């Protein structure tokens, strides 16, 4: 199993600090979760049905003609390689490590490429996987550039897979409206923007024929009845979407200013996290962990070059706690 952020119980045991006492900034999940609507007892007692309004709400929210609800976009990441014969896959890296792992473990030849290397390799690839905005670097590519790559791949029966897990704050940059094009597959994560990663819900946006094949691969009832009710309520809440975008963007800008103030100006990021490359990544990660603040660290990887990803603090007490740690770290090492 690959390592991810949010492994709080393991870290709490390592440092001897109770889980409730941690400030967990290790994931890119919004710290402001949507309120849970009432869930009728029938949702627990009956098998889920797909004509309950969830897909309609999702199509309107994402602006896509066709989509498939899945148990988190991770389910789609693992299923997609089973829909193609062996071939060559490019993964724009560094990015969410499960993409390369899924294709590699299904027998594909995987090449992890940097942004400037895509042009060199794209005409030799059967599939190109892009996370946009990227996790952890925050790199955001334009729809025009991505569609140009898609055209070149589709001419040879290839796929462009775009993971838009962090796209909710910038819907104008999404390729959702273009997913009727053969060979264009967009993944959307529900839990990050809505702050409800535990419900395990995501969507695959693509042409209808492809989605029917994918649905057979994933199988029936992949999304539970209670999750479907919760998901629809969140996706229908247009006023809540606006408020969340404003709140997360403001917090992200505040995080940039805070890190910069203590000599850690981020090299990238988006509305839900910031990413900084520093030779002191291991030191800072350990320093914060001993104080009950969990950051996401990337080490021993030339592409990441020792880096940290920080999610958003939730309230003023969390902001002060993080600033105090950064201040103490700077003072001890000057």
Q: Helix and strand succession?
A: HEHHEHEHEHEHEEHEHHHEEHEEEH
Average predicted local confidence, pLDDT: 94
What is the number of helices?
13
Helix/strand class: alpha/beta
Spatial gap, N to C terminus: 39 Å
- Got a strand count? 13
Radius of gyration: 20 Å
Which percent band covers the strand fraction?
15-25%
Helix content: 25-40%
Shape: globular
Map the helices and strands.
Blueprint: H1 8-15, E1 23-24, H2 41-45, H3 54-62, E2 67-70, H4 73-79, E3 88-92, H5 98-105, E4 109-113, H6 118-121, E5 127-131, H7 143-154, E6 159-163, E7 184-189, H8 191-194, E8 202-205, H9 208-218, H10 225-235, H11 238-261, E9 268-270, E10 273-277, H12 281-289, E11 293-294, E12 296-298, E13 307-311, H13 316-332
Parallel strand pairs: 1-11, 3-4, 3-5, 5-6, 6-7
Antiparallel strand pairs: 2-8, 7-8, 9-10, 10-13, 12-13
Helix pairs in contact: 3-10, 4-5
Attribute tags:
334 residues; four-stranded antiparallel beta sheet; alpha/beta
Question: What does the model show?
Answer:
The chain has 334 residues and is an alpha/beta fold. Helix content is 39%, strand content 16%. It has 13 helices and 13 strands. A 7-stranded mixed β-sheet has the order 2-8-7-6-5-3-4, with helices on both faces. A 4-stranded antiparallel β-sheet has the order 9-10-13-12, covered by helices on one side. A two-stranded parallel sheet has the order 1-11. α3 packs parallel to α10 (225-235) and α4 (73-79) packs parallel to α5 (98-105). The two termini are 39 Å apart. The relative contact order is 0.17.
